[in-house]
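Reminder to self: tokens first, then the designed residues, so the page reads top to bottom the way the pipeline ran.
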């Protein structure tokens, strides 16, 4: 039996889950894969925390050198989060000849190329299944399945915190703040939850997933991003009345050398499979030119599901004699010949507050018409204090045309407020 010594850096939510699985399922892993995985070191800032978690004195440490200088350790799991010092720690571990497993999507999306080069130069591996969609094996699927296909689309719900918040607001009438607090208590949210609710986390993940799907570097800086902080209970209720569920979607599409990548709240028709993905569950659709749709579903965050993905990488890495390296990450730059589209096409839900008087609808529809935006329906909600909430649903139209129309509508005296602009999929 092969014995593999592992170090865990960061015993928080994911590190804790990883340690638990490696301890509780040690014998199963050994018998199924012939690998005796032993945790040789656990590093964290706070030794008392490690002691309280039952880590023995010879295993616990707060010094990176204890890991780097331990020649037995061949795999290091970085589960601290953030860019620094994680990047420095990982680089030193790779240079010391240790393979690295990480759940850190921010770091991978920002420095993948650089870290992959260090791994290649030192003949060690860099693995990050846990960085995207928690326990769902989407990275392995993209790297090791579907070889026969050109992937045309990767689309899904890839952030557990925002899906939990939107589900609780929609199904239980919970406030945004209460739902966010629960997501933090359950260990789904990032250290700074702005990363989740403003869409950064989904943007980092989409950068990694679309790069793997389309075999070309899709820098996170090229991704259109909108979070859920402006979403109101009214939006959710209004969507519900029309048969839609609100989700934060990440969408990547490739057509020839043109790529479209975006993260934003979306009304999803209730009959669509993504509409029923609730709580901390995530789901990703991959569309290949031959296989057609593949849907992966599971828990996108939390100690146990994410720990499961980390352990999967540890065992996978431990079983390899030679590590493969991604060759297209291009130090975070778009490859020559690839165009990232700034405009895209969608259906839209637009909520406006307008004056309740004759001729207002004509003025509004005139603006849409002049911008070539075709309206599917207009409805007026209850009038109060001389103003009327209007809901407009468009047919497929261009994002630029919608933004141009909104800018012109905002200048009309009869338009008191543009309340919401939400993309729609049926
Ligand atoms: P936590 O904050 O729960 O855990 C991080 C741990 O690392 C804490 O114990 C922290 O200590 C410790 N730590 C931070 N910096 C250092 C340092 N410089 N030296 C030593 N220890 C340090 O985070 P999570 O477990 O939630 O997340 C870890 C990583 O996993 C992140 O990259 C995150 O994006 C990713 N991830 C998280 C998921 C989740 O569901 N939570 C799912 C998928 C990925 P202290 O608390 O004292 O700061
Ligand atoms: N904060 C992340 C989320 C953790 O909520 O999805 C999983 O990557």
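Designed residues (426 positions):
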């Amino acid at each position: 039996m092969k014995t593999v010594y592992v170090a865990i850096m960061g015993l928080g939510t994911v590190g804790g889950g990883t340690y638990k699985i490696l301890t509780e399922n040690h014998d199963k892993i050994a018998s199924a894969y012939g690998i005796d995985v032993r945790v040789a070191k656990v590093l964290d800032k706070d030794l008392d925390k490690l002691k309280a978690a039952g880590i023995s004195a010879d295993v616990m440490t707060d010094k990176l050198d204890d890991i780097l200088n331990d020649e037995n350790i061949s795999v290091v799991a970085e589960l601290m989060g953030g860019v620094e010092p994680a990047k420095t720690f990982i680089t030193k571990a790779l240079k010391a000849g240790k393979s690295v497993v990480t759940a850190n999507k921010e770091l991978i999306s920002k420095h993948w190329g650089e870290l992959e080069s260090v791994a290649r130069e030192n003949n060690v591996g860099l693995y990050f299944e846990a960085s995207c969609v928690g326990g769902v094996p989407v990275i392995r699927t993209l790297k090791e399945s579907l070889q026969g296909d050109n992937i045309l689309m990767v689309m899904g719900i890839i952030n557990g915190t925002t899906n939990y918040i939107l589900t609780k607001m929609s199904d239980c009438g919970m406030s945004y703040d209460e739902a966010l607090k629960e997501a933090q208590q359950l260990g789904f949210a990032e250290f700074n939850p702005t990363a989740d609710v403003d869409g950064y986390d989904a943007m980092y993940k989409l950068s990694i997933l679309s790069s793997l799907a389309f075999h070309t570097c899709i820098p996170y800086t090229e991704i259109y991003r909108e979070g859920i902080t402006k979403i109101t209970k009214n939006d959710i209720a209004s969507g519900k009345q029309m048969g839609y569920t609100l989700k934060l979607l990440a969408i990547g599409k490739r057509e020839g050398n043109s790529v479209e990548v975006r993260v934003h709240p979306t009304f999803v028709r209730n009959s669509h499979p993504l509409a029923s993905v609730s709580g901390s569950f995530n789901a990703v659709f991959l569309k290949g030119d031959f296989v057609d749709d593949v849907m992966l579903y599971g828990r996108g965050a939390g100690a146990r599901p994410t720990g499961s993905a980390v352990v999967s990488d540890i065992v996978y890495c431990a079983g390899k004699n030679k590590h493969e390296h991604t060759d297209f990450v291009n130090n975070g730059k778009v490859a020559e010949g690839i165009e990232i589209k700034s405009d895209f096409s969608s259906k839209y839900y637009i909520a406006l507050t307008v004056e309740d008087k004759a001729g207002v609808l004509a003025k509004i529809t005139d603006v849409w018409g002049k911008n070539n935006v075709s309206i599917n329906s207009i409805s007026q909600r209850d009038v109060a204090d001389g103003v009327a909430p209007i809901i407009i649903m468009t047919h497929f139209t261009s994002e630029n045309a919608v933004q141009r129309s909104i800018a012109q509508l905002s200048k009309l005296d009869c338009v008191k407020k543009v309340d919401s602009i939400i993309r729609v999929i049926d």
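The pocket of L-homoserine (ligand 2) is lined by residues 134, 159-161, 188-190, 196, 201, 300-301 (CB under 6 Å).
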